Amino acid sequence: MAIAKAERLMNLALCLMNTRRPLSKKELRESVEAYREAWQSGSEEAFNRMFERDKDDLRELGLIIDVDENGLDGEMGYLARKDRNRLPEIALDAEEAAALTLAARVWQQAKMSGAASGALQKLRAAGVPFTEEREHSALEPRIPAREAAFEPLLTAARDRRPVTFEYRKAGAAAVEQRSVEPWALECWRGHWYLAGWDRDRGAARVFRLSRITGKVKSRAGRFTGTVPEHVDVRAVVARFGGEGATASATVRLRQGKGFPLRTKALTVREGEGGWDELEIPYGPGLAAEAAEFGPDLVVLAPEDLRADVVDRLRAVAGLLEGQS
Predict the structure, then answer these.
(1) For each successive 10 residues of the chain (324 residues), what is the average pLDDT?
(2) With left for phi above 0 and alpha for psi between -120 and 50, is residue 79 left, alpha or beta?
(3) Which pTM value belongs to this model?
(4) Contact 179, 198 (CB under 8 A)
(5) How many CA atoms lie within 13 A of 251 on its CB side?
(6) Which whole-number Å values give the CA distances from 31 to 54, 137, 174, 190, 288, in the listed order?
(7) 136 Cβ partners below 8 Å, 6+ apart?
(8) Closest CA to 167 of 140, 145, 138, 198
């Protein structure tokens, strides 16, 4: 939501909730600066459309607005009574309080730690049963968020704001400019991933935050793609990493190298000359992952995977030669 509209809705809500009698459109127009500016520009119709949209938006957000058809000077009046718009008391049992405490601790390494801590303090002041024993539990969840791109992407996903950033694909020497509509972030096996709509490619994509270089820049405008109701980032990453794949690949891997591949190996046979032979799941993202190991990995089969890895390594070698 644009800041100007959010401020206008807040001002309208405050006017409706802080009056003892219904207010007419004329009175609200004089009280809310944005309405006054719209009217002074010479467009009564523009003001009326803006007011009706804002009134509907506030109702969608849960504000109960009463309408008095016999208001001041016979004009229709509007009022949001406090007794009808008061939130109920917050009541949490000990187990729910413990769950909130653990959730707040998750974000200790991110900028949201201050907001999470402040929320817990307000709940304590309201009488929520946080106890010292639970606060110092042996269970200490952590979600590392060290990538500089984490905070701006999380904010952009929350506010539904398109972003642009430079991205280095696995096995690539050069970075690419990407224009993305961010949907969700998720941590999987120690790495943060962003799922979203890649505008340039016209398809859903997943990006590893550690491969984002430079600053994430927020762009104006709305999302052009449809945001799915549920975004399973882990499932997409796992599929591109080869998990759940029905095919397999055979690679030769230098001993003492390639531990990420070794953890997913179906079989490992000790070879000669300091090499091992592994059978690993073959998914659509395996070529990019295999290319990262450079001279420490040789693809034996299938042939299409071998050709893909060779092409990627040659492309990287060509870029490096061009830079020298």
Answers:
(1) 73 90 90 84 82 90 86 80 76 76 63 63 66 48 72 89 90 84 84 91 90 92 84 72 71 90 88 92 81 92 92 81 66
(2) beta
(3) 0.47
(4) yes
(5) 32
(6) 15, 52, 55, 52, 60
(7) none
(8) 198
